[in-house]
Structures are given as structure tokens and as C-alpha cells.
């Protein structure tokens, strides 16, 4: 078990022991499968929502998570499935296990828990491993959010549809990062 996975599973165990519910998000379904194995060993029941799960079954999972106090206290959610109209207000902790270069995908996943009808305080836990490509992804996210903010306020008229060559060079440059990490720009409060 990686240190990140160990940390997340332990934090989820604490959340569940306080009779709260959690959503663990990853862009990698194989990572979610590993989480499922570890939660089974810890005797923590969980559901999986990924692209391979039929819509009918997703509805059953969501209804159980939101409405059944004795139901599974954890949902493992793929980042791709997390942006598609789910309402997971039964949970109040969301753990983002790995970062994506597009911060809006992460925001959409968080919005599944932080929705109309949510009555509990929502806690978003973002896991960033120091000294890894994740620090560069954080920098890229900050730049994308600043650009989006500029577009929304009329300060810039730029279109971004994906990663540029310069973005990829920055992410996979073998040298140490040539920047000092900055705080998130306009990070939503949860």
C-alpha cells in the first residue's frame, strides 16, 4: 500500500467511525479497485461508481448512500463518472486521490457532494505528494484557474481545450520544478 493510499484509508476509517460518509475520487479505476480491496480488509463497505456501472445500478447506489444510514458509508467514484449529474449529498467528506490537469473535473466531482440539499459541512481532502509531478499539476491547475477567471471577468480572450506542448514539457521535465508553489487562485470554499 502506498503512503497516500494508507493515509486516505486511515482518514476514511476515522470518518466512518464518526458515522459520516465519504466519497473517494480517482481518475484511475484500477486505483479505485485497490481502495475497494483495502476497505474490504478493514471491513468498511463501499460502492463503486465508474463508467462501467449501469445507470440503473448507479441510481440504486446513490439512493442507498444518501438515504440509508446503515448502507455503505463509502463511494469510490471515477473522475469521469463524477461529472455526470450524480447527487451524493449523503456524504460530507470527499477525498481526491490523484490530481488531474483540468481543475474543473475535480470541481465537478466535489460538486456531487456539495449540492442543493446538503445539510452537513463538506470537507474536501486533496492529496498532493511533495516532490512529484503532482506539484507541477497543481501549478498547471492554478494557471488554468487564473486564465478561466480572466476570461470570466473579461480580462482575457483565450481558448483552452487541452494541454499544450509547453504544459507537457513543464509536467515531465526531469529537473526540479523551477517555481515556488502558489496558493490556489479562487479555490471554492467547501
Automatic annotation (TrEMBL):
<dbReference type="InterPro" id="IPR027417">
    <property type="entry name" value="P-loop_NTPase"/>
</dbReference>
<dbReference type="GO" id="GO:0016787">
    <property type="term" value="F:hydrolase activity"/>
</dbReference>
<dbReference type="InterPro" id="IPR001650">
    <property type="entry name" value="Helicase_C-like"/>
</dbReference>
<keyword id="KW-0378">Hydrolase</keyword>
<dbReference type="GO" id="GO:0005524">
    <property type="term" value="F:ATP binding"/>
</dbReference>
<keyword id="KW-0067">ATP-binding</keyword>
<dbReference type="InterPro" id="IPR049730">
    <property type="entry name" value="SNF2/RAD54-like_C"/>
</dbReference>
<protein>
    <recommendedName>
        <fullName>Helicase C-terminal domain-containing protein</fullName>
    </recommendedName>
</protein>
<feature type="domain" description="Helicase C-terminal">
    <location>
        <begin position="7"/>
        <end position="164"/>
    </location>
</feature>
<keyword id="KW-0547">Nucleotide-binding</keyword>
<dbReference type="Pfam" id="PF00271">
    <property type="entry name" value="Helicase_C"/>
</dbReference>
<dbReference type="InterPro" id="IPR050628">
    <property type="entry name" value="SNF2_RAD54_helicase_TF"/>
</dbReference>
Amino acid at each position: 500500500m502506498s503512503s497516500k493510499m494508507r493515509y486516505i484509508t486511515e482518514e476514511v476509517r476515522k470518518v466512518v467511525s464518526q458515522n459520516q460518509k465519504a466519497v473517494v475520487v480517482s481518475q484511475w479505476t484500477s486505483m479505485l479497485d485497490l481502495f475497494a480491496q483495502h476497505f474490504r480488509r478493514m471491513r468498511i463497505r463501499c460502492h463503486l461508481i465508474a463508467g462501467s456501472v449501469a445507470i440503473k445500478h448507479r441510481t440504486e447506489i446513490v439512493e442507498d448512500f444518501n438515504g440509508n444510514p446503515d448502507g455503505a458509508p463509502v463511494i469510490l467514484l471515477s473522475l469521469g463518472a463524477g461529472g455526470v449529474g450524480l447527487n451524493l449529498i449523503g456524504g460530507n467528506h470527499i477525498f481526491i486521490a490523484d490530481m488531474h490537469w483540468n481543475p474543473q473535473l475535480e470541481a465537478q466531482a466535489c460538486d456531487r457532494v456539495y449540492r442543493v440539499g446538503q445539510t452537513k459541512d463538506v470537507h474536501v481532502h486533496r492529496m498532493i505528494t511533495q516532490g512529484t509531478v503532482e506539484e507541477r499539476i497543481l501549478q498547471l491547475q492554478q494557471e488554468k484557474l487564473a486564465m478561466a477567471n480572466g476570461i470570466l471577468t473579461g480580462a482575457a480572450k483565450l481558448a483552452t481545450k487541452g494541454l499544450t506542448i509547453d504544459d507537457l514539457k513543464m509536467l515531465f521535465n526531469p529537473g526540479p520544478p523551477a517555481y515556488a508553489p502558489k496558493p490556489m487562485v479562487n479555490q471554492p470554499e467547501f
